[in-house]
Amino acid sequence: MFKKWLVALAILLSASAQAYQQGESLSPFAQQQLGLNPEVVTIIDFFAEWCVSCREELPEVNQLAQQLDASKVVVLGIDVDEDVDVANAFQQELGLTFPVVNDPEQTLVEDFQPIGMPALYYIYQSKVLKVRYGAINHISQAIRDDLKVLGLTK
């Protein structure tokens, strides 16, 4: 448990200067690890089993992911739990149906340096279109609003 909080604290302390910002390109490492389709917007959702807000938001994100036009927008989760068994059990408990990359070695979370959890990144052609950090009430509506502003929904 202490190690989880230490990781969270390290993310918060180091992220402000290094976190991906709107308009920046993903590193070659992230591009290779994620293999994103450059022709669709990918909403990357960083989460963990120990994150209370993640537990509340993920079912809503999961439901929304099933409703999105996959030819335009997809959701990809990145579970930063260090124990893959814990990560898989958490994903199964929540019934997540969108793809999830387990990041037990913390390589992707270190690359992205999110300033808190949960963290959403909207990526298109390896560029960051928008970033959202922390708990958001009615997250599915916030995502729909973001997609509308990005010209991806009516």
UniProtKB/TrEMBL annotation:
Q: Per the UniProt entry, what are the Gene Ontology biological process annotations, in alphabetical order?
A: cytochrome complex assembly
- Give the record's keywords alphabetically: Cytochrome c-type biogenesis, Disulfide bond, Redox-active center, Signal
Its domain of life? Answer: Bacteria
InterPro entries cross-referenced by the UniProt entry: AhpC/TSA, Thioredoxin-like_sf, Thioredoxin_CS, Thioredoxin_domain, Thioredoxin_ResA/DsbE_sf
Which species is the source of this protein?
Answer: Photobacterium chitinilyticum
- PANTHER family in UniProt: THIOL:DISULFIDE INTERCHANGE PROTEIN DSBE (PTHR42852)
Where is this chain's protein located in or outside the cell?
A: Cell envelope
**Gene Ontology, cellular component aspect:** cell envelope
What range does the record give for the signal peptide? 1-19
Q: Which residue numbers delimit the Thioredoxin domain?
A: 6-154
What are the protein's GO molecular function terms?
Answer: antioxidant activity; disulfide oxidoreductase activity
* Main location, first listed in the record: other
Please indicate if the UniProt record lists Ion transport as a keyword: no
Name of the protein this chain belongs to = TlpA family protein disulfide reductase
Q: Does the keyword Signal apply?
A: yes
